[in-house]
Design brief:
mainly alpha, three-stranded antiparallel sheet, 3 strands, extended
């Protein structure tokens, strides 16, 4: 009885896999038949999360990235996570929005510092950080007695440094 049930379950799983493969093949056939349209003057397309057209619209992208970072930051802080998990979520969900763009868009240190101050302000608004608490402790690793928040400025410097090292290795 148990053996028959196991065989029936295996057969059902195989049938489901075959149906999924057929659906994927149909989707691929549909995609291949779609013609690529020419980009109109002044229009943009999205490539790896960055709007491009006749070059990258840097200022628009900066504003959009800042808005997305702040949106994610607020979403995390509104959640019912404990403080440790909120800090971890900020490092995993909000900071990568900016980190990806550091090698593509020319950020000024002043822009990064504004984001840095805004982050602290929002943390204070959501009562994750006290206004009179030590700011440096926010960015010290948790194992060393800090909160473990990823500093946007440090992430910027690390990303630019790693890109520069990579490019020098390619040139050699």
């Amino acid at each position: 009885m148990k053996i028959r049930l196991q065989y029936i379950i295996i057969i059902i799983i195989i049938i489901i896999i075959i149906i999924i493969i057929i659906i994927i093949i149909i989707i691929i056939i549909i995609i291949i038949n779609i013609e690529i349209q020419e980009l109109e003057q002044g229009k943009t397309y999205k490539y790896l999360g960055t709007d491009e057209g006749e070059g990258i619209q840097r200022q628009q992208m900066k504003e959009r990235l800042k808005q997305e970072y702040n949106r994610r930051l607020r979403m995390i802080l509104k959640s019912e996570l404990n403080a440790r998990n909120k800090i971890t979520a900020i490092g995993a969900l909000a900071v990568p929005v900016l980190r990806y763009s550091f090698g593509i868009i020319n950020w000024k240190i002043e822009d990064i510092k504004k984001i840095y101050r805004k982050t602290r302000k929002i943390l204070t608004m959501y009562k994750v950080h006290h206004p009179k608490a030590d700011m440096d402790r926010l960015y010290v690793k948790r194992k060393e007695g800090g909160r473990g928040l990823v500093q946007v400025e440090a992430a910027y410097k690390a990303e630019i440094t790693s890109i520069a090292e990579y490019l020098t290795q390619i040139v050699k």
